[in-house]
Design goal:
single chain, mainly alpha, 11 helices, 75% helix
Length: 274
């Protein structure tokens, strides 16, 4: 796949979200099932102490790339299936080695950020998990008191800030290794450069997602409030979160396509197979 680094206009950022929803509408059940399968696998991995958390973090670049491969398949009229998650690992040994190194690098750095944030919060996240596991009366009051501690907010801000910085070099890197044949360092550099050159578009993209979530929250609160069942607002948040997470990962393909080219656009896609 021929890749050319481009500067994306700021107005394209929100369009990535629109295109992702349009592609999701073509195969809603297949895409949602794809993300649900990953969540199920992540939940199983979480049952393994320590190694499960490492596996979850290491797998995130493959999750992103798997959705990009699935999205491209859907654009070309192909199927969407779980094998897309491992398809990038079935290529030539050089790209597979670079991709696995990238995944482990991301996992180690992400876990380091979480451990640092947990230390800053005086291990509040561990205490929170123990409280939730204990359950029983009075737990909610203890949880609220824990969340109000200054260190918890500082740890959360640190995790979000460092996590956002980590996402920049790794955003396009898996696709640059898989489709562009780039090495690890080149892919990380190219991803960083692409996000910097199109920072206006990515800012609009992030603000677009904030707007989508706020609008959804407002609409559901108003609708369920008017019909007298406000308690359903939280209940509908679970399937909505699944859909929004799925569409988010679909949208990564469009950020890559505009930044580097080499993949079909939504208006020009083939008619999906029956």
């Amino acid at each position: 796949m021929a890749l050319i680094l481009k500067t994306v206009p700021a107005a394209h950022g929100p369009r990535w979200i629109v295109d992702a929803f349009r592609l999701f509408a073509k195969r809603p059940f297949a895409f949602t099932a794809l993300f649900a399968i990953y969540l199920f696998a992540a939940m199983l991995a979480a049952q393994v102490p320590l190694l499960g958390s490492v596996a979850q973090m290491v797998s995130l670049p493959l999750l992103s790339l798997g959705f990009m491969v699935a999205g491209q398949s859907a654009l070309l009229g192909g199927t969407v299936h779980p094998r897309h998650f491992i398809e990038p690992l079935r290529g030539d040994p050089v790209r597979r080695r670079a991709l696995l190194t990238l995944c482990f690098s991301y996992g180690v750095l992400a876990i380091g950020i979480l451990l640092l944030a947990d230390t800053v919060s005086d291990h509040a996240w561990d205490r929170l998990q123990r409280l939730l596991a204990k359950g029983g009366d009075g737990v909610q009051a203890e949880v609220d008191a824990l969340l109000s501690e200054p260190g918890v907010a500082g740890g959360a801000l640190l995790a979000v800030g460092l996590g956002s910085l980590l996402a920049i070099p790794f955003w396009h890197a898996p696709a640059l290794v898989h489709w562009g044949g780039q090495g690890l360092r080149q892919a990380l550099f190219s991803s960083t450069l692409a996000l910097w050159r199109s920072k206006g578009a990515f800012f609009g993209y992030m603000m677009g997602w904030v707007g989508v979530l706020l609008l959804f929250g407002l609409i559901t609160a108003v609708v369920f409030g008017l019909i007298g069942v406000p308690q359903l607002t939280g209940l509908i948040g679970v399937p909505a979160g699944l859909v929004f997470s799925t569409v988010f990962y679909i949208s990564v393909l469009f950020t890559f396509t505009d930044s580097f080219g080499g993949a079909p656009t939504l208006p020009a896609q083939a008619t999906p197979a029956g």
